[in-house]
Amino acid sequence: MSQLVAIARREFLSYFSTSVGYVVLALYLLMSGLLFALSVLHTGVEASMRPFFDLSFFLLLFIAPAISMRLISEEMRLGTIESLMTCPISDAQVVVGKWIGAVGFFLAMMAPTLIYPLVLEWYSAPDYGSIFAGYLGLLLIGGLYLSFGTLASSIWPSQILAYLVAVFFWLIFVGLTSWLPRFIGDPWSAILFKMSIELRYSNDFSKGVIDTSTILYFVSGMVFFLVAAVKIVESRRWR
Amino acid sequence: MIEIEHLTKCYGSFRAVGDVSLSIPNGQVLGLLGPNGAGKTTIIRVMTGYLPPTRGKASVEGFDSVTQSHEVRRRLGYLPESNPLYGEMRVVEYLDFRGRIFGLARAQRKTAVDRVVERCWLKEMRKRQIGRLSKGYKQRVGLAAAMLHQPPVLVLDEPTSGLDPIQIRETRHLIRELAGDHTMVLSSHILPEVEVTCDRIVIIARGGIRADGTVDQLKQKAGDSQHYVLEVKPETGNGSMREAIGKISGVSRVDETSIDGWTRYEITGDATSSDLREPLGRVVSETRVPCRELHRESGSLEQLFVRITSEGEAP
Known about the structure:
By secondary structure, chain A is an all-alpha fold. Chain A is built from 12 helices and no strands.
C-alpha cells in the first residue's frame, strides 16, 4: 500500500514540476471560467450549475487525455520503467498508482472551480445537493477518461499519439452511443443509449440524481481500462 | 549467491542469450565483459527479474527471478545501463521516493538517504534537481539509489559509461570500496575497468560464455606460447650468453637486440615447456653479467578479448 501511495504521490507532484501540468491547469481554468460565465451567469434564469456541468463533459474529453498521455509512455521513453519494474512492486501498483496520481491532479485542477457555486450564492440560493452530484459525476467521468488515457499511454510510447488516440476514442464512443442511436431503431438504440456516458451524466448527475447503477457503470469502465493497461505493461516483458 | 542455469532468452526469432550457466558466490565481484550486443544486459535483465527467460532460470539468494521476483528485487540493487532518473526531482526527493518504494519506514529512509549521500559524495548536491546535474553526479545518484536499501547483491550495468576519466576513477574506487560488503555483478565492455575492479571475469560474446576465470587465469589463457625478456650488459668474455640460453631445455627461439648499451634477449619457449625463468636466472648468475631485467610476458586480457570476439574461439 505504501508503495502505491509513493507512486501516486510522485506522479501527482511531477505535474507541478513540468510546464505541461501548468499549461493543462491554466487551459482548463480558462475554458471552464468561460463556460461558467457564458452558460450559467444569465439574468432571470434558474441559479443552476447544470449548463456548466453538461458542457464540462465535453471540455474534459479534450483535457483529461492531456493529463494521462505521459503516464506510462514517459516512463518508457526515459527508461525509468526499468528501474521501477526492478523494485519490489507489482505492475498493477505502478499502473494504478500513476492513475491515482493523475486523478489527484484532476481534483486539484477542479478545485478552483468550487468558487463558481459561491459566485451563484452571491446572487441567489443554488441547490447544493445537485452541485455535489454534478461534481461527483465529473470526478467519475474524469476517472474514466484518465483510465483509458492510461491504457493508451501504455500502448503508444509517443505522448502525442496517446493523447490523440484517447481523444478520438471518446469522440467515437460518444458519437456511437449518444448520436447514432437517434437514427437507428430498437433494440440497438436502447442498448447504445444505455452505454452513453453523456446521457447517463446529463440525465443523472447533472440533474442532481446519484444513481448507483451509473456509478457502477463508470467504475466498471475504469476497472476494465486499468486492468487492460496492467496486462499491456505485463505483456511487454514477454515479447 | 547468484545462480544462472541454462539461461536462454529470445526476442522473437533472435536468440540474444543461449544456454548460459553461471554461479556467483557471495562476496564475489564478477565482471561481465563483452562487446556491445553480446547479451550482457539481457543476462542482467533476467537476473533482476525485469525480463523472464525463454528457457532456464536465474535465482538470487535462492529466490527464483520469475516466481519469486519480489524477493529477488528486495535483495538487489540495480543500476541500469542508461541510468534512468526522474530529472524533475531533487536528489534527496528521488532517494526518499526509492526508499518508499522499497518499503522503508520514515526514520529508516532518512538514515539510508544520509548514508548513501555521504558514501556517493553527493552532500553538496542534496537539494539539486537531478536534471541539472552533470553526468558524473547523475551516475552517483543512480548508484546511491541502487545501494539505498542495503541490498546484499549489486548489479551495475556499464557503471562508468559516459563519465570523464576522473569520474571513472572515482566510480571504480567506490565500486572497490563496496566490494567488501556486497556480491557484485558489473557489466562493461571496458577492459581496464573489469581488470581493476573484478575478482572474476566472464567474457560474453554472441550470447554465450566464451571465457571464465580470474584476471590472471584469463591472461594466462591469452598467451599462445611462453615469452621471456632478459636484459644484460654485453658480455665480457664469459662465453656466449646467447649460446647458453639456447642450450636451456624448452627454449625454441632467442632474439637479440641492443638497447641503450644493454643487450635484450627475447626468448620464446615451446608450448610444452615449464617456467623458464629459473634456468634463465641460473645462466645469468653463472655468466656473472650485470642484469637489469628478467620477466615472463603474460598474454593480455585485450588479446584474449579480441581473439574471442573476432574469431569466435570456443571456451
